[in-house]
Structure formats: structure tokens, C-alpha cells
Write a structure and sequence with these properties.
α12 packs across α13. The protein is globular and about 65 Å long. The chain has 465 residues and is α/β, with parallel strands linked by helices.
Length: 465
């Protein structure tokens, strides 16, 4: 019997019915991921499973390091087959880690492979999957179609020219692929040298000479407008915490002058600068009717030695314990008072902030847009069965689960879309079990509608797609 059967994670008759009759066949709207648009525009063909599955996946890299796999077999010069062999030998030791479920779900859904991945099956599975990946049906477009992806949003830097998005449109892709304005670089001033390089590139892109804060905002606004002209309707940012300091024009100009000189502003001055930039971008989002997403609470690049060797997003980040509530409340309230609060999704990485985030969204829902402020799906380290269930339970207890815009992959891999199925199974099991216990009415049609809304229709309506 296969490990992952038709009723995987479904533990009651009603859960099984809800999933198979209402959730399983819905299209996918993936409104936040880190997929490279150039691989979509070129309909990239992966050479083998290592390129498609292990390249850039710091979830797997962290597990391999914990298992004691040498870096040469993770990000080093070992052959692709050697790297896959080391991952395969690691998989049995990921038991109870979400990687164990994801790995076997992805092998089954994309490649039809039911065998467990381990050191004894590695060679055959490497050969079988790589052979399939070299066929037209397993190009990037084929992989997306196989998972019924209808819309996906990539994550794009403010200075990106978005040429690959132009090519995707030109190629008449059946999948709507949209950019997202990822504006971390606009407030990342802890490294003055890197920020100065960003400023120079911004000046070049916009033909605006930046000598003060107003010119800086003018240039950023020009890029924001450019993204809008390319079909962007989402802004996104990853921060330790939001900033909502009071500031004056002179304080912002003084800070800008220090940055132009390649100097680090004092801490309070930096927070004022970030507050002003973030508030301005948020107001532009509201003016354009965009949705804004705030990913809060990651403590990044902890291992300075490996960060210097491999760079960012290679597996050296963790959960931070930053204070979130005061600045977040002030930031949202400042926008709301001006009637400049856009549709907003909040994500927390620290599970201790679950109830905080769920209650915060309720402070600013205005009775005009259903679910205008959303507490987003379980993010990053919380994106696993226990974390998803906790997010669903907390949201149910404090807000309206029925208005939730559902799951996203937040992934760099084109093989990650079964995470939507994983979420749908967990959701159906949670609700179906309560129905069978008599804790919810035995109205399968109405409950099925709510599940379909969470898995697909709410997002389609919320984002206007």
C-alpha cells in the first residue's frame, strides 16, 4: 500500500467527502512565491531532479546540514546525482518534519512515484524523474498546468525591468503571471555601502538626481508607477517589525544626507526614515487599489561566516522575538486615519504572535470590504501540519475563517504546488472531524462552499483576478 493514498491526512468520512467533492479539483491561485520569472518566460526545461528540486531550497539544505551532510553535497561542486543521493539518504531522517510529507507528495503528484525515497531507491528515482523532466510535458509550463495553477505572483525587486513578465504576456501564457513590488531594498539601510549602490541604480533607472528625501520618494514613486503599468497589483515586504515613528521633513533630509555620504544614521533616525518610506509606499498602494503584504519577524543571516561565503537565502535565518504590536497598530492606524489603508495581509514568523496578528486585523476592518485586513497563512517555519492547524484554529476563534484567502507556496521551486493540496487536506480534516463529532452542523453543501471559498474563491475575489 502506498504511503500517500487517496485519503492521506483525512480521518473521518466527512473530511474525505469535503476534500474529494469540494476541494481537490479547484484551480490554484498562488499569490506569493519566489519563482524566477525568467524560467517561466523561457518555459525552462530542467535537466534533472536536483536542478528542479534541490537548487535554492534552503528548507532541504538545513535538514541536510543537520543530518551531517558536507556543504559540498549541498551548495558545493558535487555532481547533481551525488547531491540527490545525499538528499535521498537524509529523507528517512526527516520523519515528522514537513519535508517528509512534501517530498513524497511531490514525487507522487508530479512523477507518479509511490516508493519511499531513501538511499536504496535514490538511483532509480533520480533516473526516472530526470527522464520525465526532459520531456515537453515537464517543462515549467507543463509543471504549472499539471497542478492547475491559474494565477501566480512572483517577487520582484523595485529596480527590476520586468522584461520576463513582458515575454510571458507576449507568449500568451494560459497562466496569469503577475509581478509583486517587493520593497525591502527601499528601507534596508543597515549596510550603507549596499544602500548607496541601490541609490545609484535608482537614480539611473529613474533619471532623478537624489539629493534629499523628497527626491528619493519621487524616484521610488516612479518605480511604483512602472510596476503598476506592468500589471502589478501587489506590494510585499519582509521586515523584522514595522516602524511608525513620528518624523519631520528636516529629520528625513538629514538622514538622507548621511546615507548619500555612505554613513550609518543613528538608530532613531533610521527608524524615522523607515517609517516615512513604508508609510509613503502604503499610501501609494491604497491609491492604486493594490494589496499589501507584510512578512514580519524573521531574524535573518545569523551565521555571518556562512552568509559571507554563500550569501542571503541559503539557510541561516530563524524566528525572531521582536515586539510587534505597538508599531504595527500605530502604522495601520495612521493610514486608516487618512483613509489610505489598502487591503492588507499580515504574516508572523513567531508563533507567539498568532493571537496578536489575528486580533490586530479586526481593529481595521471597515465593514465595506469583506476580510479587508487578513492574517495570512502559516509562514515559513510555521508552514507545516501543526502550524497550519494552529493558524486555522486561532483565526476561527478570533476572526472569520470563512473570509480567509487561503494558502500560498512562498517557494522557489516549481515542484512545491502540492502544498496547496496539503493545506486543503488539513483544512478539510479539521472541519470534517468537527462535523462528525457534532461540533458543527452536518450541512456538507454549506461547509463545502466555505471550504471552496477558502481554497480558491476568496483569493480570486480579494485580489480581483
Amino acid at each position: 500500500m502506498a504511503f500517500i493514498d487517496e485519503d492521506f491526512l483525512l480521518h473521518s468520512k466527512t473530511a474525505i467527502r469535503l476534500f474529494h467533492d469540494y476541494a481537490s479539483n479547484l484551480p490554484i491561485i498562488d499569490y506569493h512565491n519566489h519563482l524566477p520569472p525568467q524560467q517561466i518566460s523561457s518555459n525552462h526545461q530542467f535537466q534533472n531532479i536536483t536542478e528542479a528540486w534541490l537548487s535554492g531550497d534552503h528548507y532541504k539544505w538545513r535538514a541536510m546540514r543537520t543530518q551531517g551532510v558536507k556543504e559540498n553535497f549541498i551548495t558545493g561542486t558535487a555532481s547533481d546525482e551525488e547531491k540527490f543521493s545525499q538528499w535521498a539518504a537524509t529523507v528517512p531522517y526527516t520523519l515528522r518534519n514537513p519535508l517528509y510529507h512534501w517530498t513524497h507528495l511531490e514525487l507522487k503528484r508530479y512523477f507518479g512515484i509511490d516508493r519511499l525515497l531513501d538511499s536504496t531507491s535514490a538511483k532509480a528515482i533520480y533516473s526516472e524523474t530526470s527522464a520525465q523532466l526532459n520531456t515537453p510535458a515537464f517543462s515549467v509550463g507543463g509543471l504549472l498546468n499539471k497542478m492547475k495553477v491559474e494565477v501566480l505572483c512572483t517577487t520582484d525587486e523595485p529596480l527590476d525591468d520586468l522584461q520576463h513578465h513582458d515575454l510571458i504576456k507576449k507568449n500568451n501564457s494560459p497562466i496569469k503571471v503577475l509581478p509583486a513590488f517587493r520593497c525591502d531594498a527601499t528601507v534596508n539601510i543597515s549596510d550603507p555601502k549596499a544602500f548607496l549602490a541601490f541609490l545609484k541604480d535608482l537614480e539611473s533607472k529613474t533619471q532623478i538626481s537624489i539629493s534629499g528625501f523628497s527626491q528619493y520618494l519621487e524616484a521610488l514613486r516612479k518605480r511604483h508607477d512602472y510596476f503598476s503599468s506592468k500589471g502589478c497589483t501587489i506590494a510585499d515586504i519582509g521586515l523584522e517589525q514595522l516602524y511608525a515613528e513620528d518624523y519631520t521633513a528636516k529629520e528625513l533630509d538629514d538622514c538622507m544626507l548621511l546615507l548619500i555620504q555612505g554613513k550609518s544614521p543613528p538608530d532613531l533616525q533610521s527608524r524615522k526614515f523607515k517609517s516615512a518610506v513604508l508609510s509613503s509606499i502604503a499610501e501609494w498602494n491604497a491609491e492604486k487599489g493594490w494589496v499589501q503584504q507584510y512578512h514580519l519577524g524573521a531574524m535573518r543571516n545569523n551565521n555571518t561566516r556562512m552568509m559571507a561565503k554563500l550569501g542571503a537565502n541559503t539557510g541561516w535565518d530563524s524566528i525572531g522575538d521582536f515586539a510587534q504590536a505597538p508599531a504595527l497598530s500605530k502604522f495601520l492606524d495612521r493610514l486608516d486615519a487618512k483613509n489610505r489603508l489598502a487591503k492588507t495581509i499580515l504574516y508572523n514568523l513567531n508563533p507567539a504572535d498568532n493571537e496578536l496578528m489575528a486580533t490586530m486585523t479586526g481593529n481595521f476592518n471597515d465593514g465595506e470590504t469583506p476580510g479587508k485586513l487578513q492574517w495570512g497563512s502559516a509562514w515559513w517555519f510555521l508552514d507545516q501540519k501543526d502550524g497550519i492547524e494552529k493558524q486555522l484554529n486561532t483565526l476561527s476563534n478570533i476572526s472569520l475563517l470563512s473570509r480567509f484567502v487561503g494558502m500560498l507556496t512562498d517557494s522557489r521551486s516549481f515542484l512545491s504546488f502540492p502544498r496547496h493540496e496539503y493545506f486543503r487536506r488539513i483544512l478539510c480534516n479539521l472541519i470534517g472531524n468537527e462535523m462528525d463529532r457534532g461540533e458543527l452542523p452536518n450541512d456538507v453543501d454549506w461547509t463545502g462552499k466555505i471550504i471552496q471559498d477558502i481554497c480558491y474563491h476568496n483569493a480570486k475575489s480579494y485580489f480581483g483576478w
